[in-house]
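Figure 3 (text version): structure tokens given as input.
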């Protein structure tokens, strides 16, 4: 499979290195808004030495497109006329960008869209009970300083430095969470796409004494209850949980495995 990477930061580089080692893939192009990232990544690769490629060419020429850039590229990708082709696959990490473009997402009929579970466990079960959920809550606990600069924090003049114990700083629906914490929405977005549940309740807790990003899902309905808790350590990129890249790499490995575990 010809593969192209959009976003050569932490996740993109790890995936490129994985793909580079596999005979099933041939890396044909790398794209990043910062061309230095492309050069650094190219030097790490052993088998393929792809050059910078435009977003349009990556979409046109790749059988597998890996998006590991930013939610802001999702609209451009979904609108690209070369995307929706049979035998094309795209793995999307910036799932926050998908919920901002649900109309465009629904129009894609041929291209296979892979959304790894990312930094959260339990989405397999949540998918199974979609349509049967009575209530769904996502509680995210983060180091207080990880929330600096979020529009909700700024708007409400919340002084994160003064928080000295675990504090619930936000509770609201998905739309409010997206507006208030646009950089922290991938997990909520993936949860919505898996559950299709419109009434997700999102809670954000600031904890000055943790180094973990913790995501707790609670779903209740006719099936019983599902509680999943994921206590993430950061990766080399302090904003990205290590599990997120492991999950993305597993999604690539799944493509070539004949045994599919989980749903
Ligand atoms: N689904 C999940 O659970 C999950 C978890 C962690 C991270 N993420 C998302 O995955 C993405 C990648 O994360 P990361 O840790 O590798 O981030 P990173 O900052 O290490 O890398 C992102 C790269 O994308 C590049 N970039 C930014 N805007 C771009 C654009 N318009 N076009 C092309 N390249 C662009 C940057 O220069 C950078 O090299 C982010 O959007 C992040 O929010 C998702």
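Below: residues designed for each position.
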């Amino acid at each position: 499979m010809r593969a192209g990477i959009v976003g050569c930061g932490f996740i993109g580089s790890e995936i490129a290195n994985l793909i580079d080692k596999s005979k099933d893939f041939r890396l044909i192009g790398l794209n990043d808004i910062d061309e230095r990232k492309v050069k650094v990544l190219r030097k790490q690769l052993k088998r393929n030495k792809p050059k910078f490629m435009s977003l349009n060419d990556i979409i046109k020429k790749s059988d597998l497109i890996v998006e590991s850039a930013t939610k802001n590229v999702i609209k451009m990708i979904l609108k690209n006329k070369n995307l929706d082709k049979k035998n094309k696959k795209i793995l999307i990490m910036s799932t926050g960008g998908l919920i901002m473009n649900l109309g465009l997402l629904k129009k894609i009929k041929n291209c296979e869209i892979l959304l790894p579970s990312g930094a959260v466990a339990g989405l397999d079960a949540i998918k199974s009970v979609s349509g049967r959920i009575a209530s769904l809550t996502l509680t995210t606990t983060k180091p207080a300083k990880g929330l600096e600069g979020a529009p909700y924090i700024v708007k409400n003049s919340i002084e994160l430095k003064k928080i000295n114990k675990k504090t619930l700083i936000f509770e609201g629906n998905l739309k409010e969470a997206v507006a208030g914490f646009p950089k922290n929405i991938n997990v909520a977005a993936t949860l919505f796409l898996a559950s299709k549940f419109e009434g997700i309740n999102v809670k954000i807790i600031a904890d000055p004494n943790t180094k973990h990003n913790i995501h707790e899902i609670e779903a209740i309905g006719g099936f019983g209850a599902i509680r999943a808790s994921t206590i993430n350590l950061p990766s080399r990129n302090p904003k990205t949980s290590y599990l997120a890249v492991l999950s993305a790499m597993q999604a690539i490995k799944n493509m070539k495995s004949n045994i599919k575990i989980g749903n």
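Residues 242-255 form the longest helix (14 residues).
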